[in-house]
Amino acid sequence: MAAGTRYGVDLRSALPADAPDLAALLGGPARAMASRLEAMGRDPASAVLVATGWNGAVIGVIALSWHPALTADRPLARITALAVAEEERRNGIGRLLIKAGAQAARAAGCDLLEAASPEGEGGAFLAALGFVPAGINLARPLRKRTEAP
Question: Is residue 146 one of the residues assigned to a domain?
Fold first, then answer.
């Protein structure tokens, strides 16, 4: 994903230097986060995108991976992590991260973006962004369907 600024928030690919901020946001030790981030960075079937605030600190993250499936002609993308700093919630950061993640998945050739079905507020948030139940997950198409002639 190309770096960019929207609404005073920078969106970019995660860097190794982001590991401490990601560990604080998602939990766990920074060293383990650095190792995971490095592994995902080497994997062409994954992306980790971060939102940073005015001071450069990570205030949100989305991690995705994609894979072929027997049930679809094109790869399926899955959100494996999505978090926004508590003090930054309800500022549109999650929406920006989902949009950037969907863009990365489309660029990888995916037609569907899946997420685990969270309970409570998370489920309502994803539903507001077009995710619908798909088995035990939620999913939304990444490409507009064209009507048959």
Answer: no
Q: Say if 113 falls within a structural domain.
A: yes
Distances (CA, A) of 136 to 74, 81, 86, 98, 106: 20, 17, 27, 20, 23
pLDDT in tens, 25-65: 999 999 999 999 999 999 999 999 999 998 889 999 999 99
What range defines the domain where residue 61 resides?
4-141
Separation between Cα atoms, residue 106 and residue 77, nearest integer Å: 9
Does 135 or 68 have the greater pLDDT score?
68
Kindly report whether the global pTM for this prediction surpasses the value 0.90: no
How many C-beta neighbours within 10 Å does residue 75 have?
18
By C-alpha distance, which of 100, 96, 133, 92 is closest to 114? Answer: 133
Q: CATH code at 70?
A: 3.40.630.30
Walk across the sheet containing 112-116 and list its strands. Answer: 4-6, 9-13, 46-52, 58-67, 76-84, 112-116, 137-141, 132-134
Q: What's the structural domain count of the chain?
A: 1
Task: Say yes or no to pLDDT of 1 above 50.
Answer: no
